[in-house]
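FORM 12-B: Structure-to-Sequence Request
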């Protein structure tokens, strides 16, 4: 009986956690072929789970001097000097050149607040570092910008977490897009993207009450059977 109760507790908590998280395909860029460098594309031709709006951007395998924040891969984006001015763009195949922009889609509940976090750092590909990391959340149905956030990019592979919130409004499908920006040639890296409903992590007291309640139900059923 105790075993059944524990299974039920686990199932409830697993479902709770699954509903609380937004399902971004390959949030750590682990999906795709085993290769040192693979380009993103507007059609996701390489099966990375992310799409390119502009030139491409690359998924790069972790190495000793250039490690991923987590797992074995990270995304690297470039911008030619002044090519991107920070304007909100939405998502889609723009066909622009001069800067990389990648995005992934995920389902959301309407009028719900979400927490977003990610790891980012500077990169010295071709000898230059990022100045600003730009993140845009888009209503995928209308391609309207929900929010756009700017973060100072940390130093060379000095991975740091950045975080913000957004409210989904009327959207049921959203997209998260990443770009780098700077007055000079710019290069930055991203990893470990997490999106979850705000306040969705159960408090320890709540979990304890849930466990006790289920255990009580199990005990009551046992008494009835005796």
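FORM 12-B RESPONSE
SEQUENCE OUT:
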């Amino acid at each position: 009986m105790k075993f059944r109760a524990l299974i039920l507790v686990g199932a409830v908590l697993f479902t709770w956690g699954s509903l609380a998280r937004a399902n971004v395909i390959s949030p750590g860029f682990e999906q795709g072929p085993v290769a040192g460098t693979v380009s993103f594309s507007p059609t996701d031709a390489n099966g990375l789970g992310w799409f390119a709006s502009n030139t491409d951007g690359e998924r790069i395998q972790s190495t000793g001097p250039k490690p991923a924040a987590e797992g074995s891969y990270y995304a690297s984006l470039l911008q030619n000097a002044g090519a991107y001015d920070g304007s909100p763009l939405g998502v889609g195949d723009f066909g622009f050149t001069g800067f990389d922009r990648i995005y992934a889609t995920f389902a959301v509940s309407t009028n719900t607040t979400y927490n977003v976090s990610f790891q980012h750092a500077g990169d010295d590909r071709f000898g230059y570092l990022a100045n600003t990391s730009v993140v845009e959340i888009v209503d995928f149905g209308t391609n309207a910008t929900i929010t756009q956030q700017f973060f100072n990019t940390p130093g060379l592979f000095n991975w740091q977490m950045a975080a913000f919130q957004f409210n989904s409004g009327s959207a049921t499908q959203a997209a998260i897009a990443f770009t780098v920006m700077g007055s000079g040639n710019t290069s930055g890296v991203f990893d470990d993207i997490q999106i979850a409903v705000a306040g969705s992590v159960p408090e320890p007291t709540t979990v304890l009450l849930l466990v006790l309640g289920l255990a009580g139900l199990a005990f009551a059923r046992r008494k009835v059977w005796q």
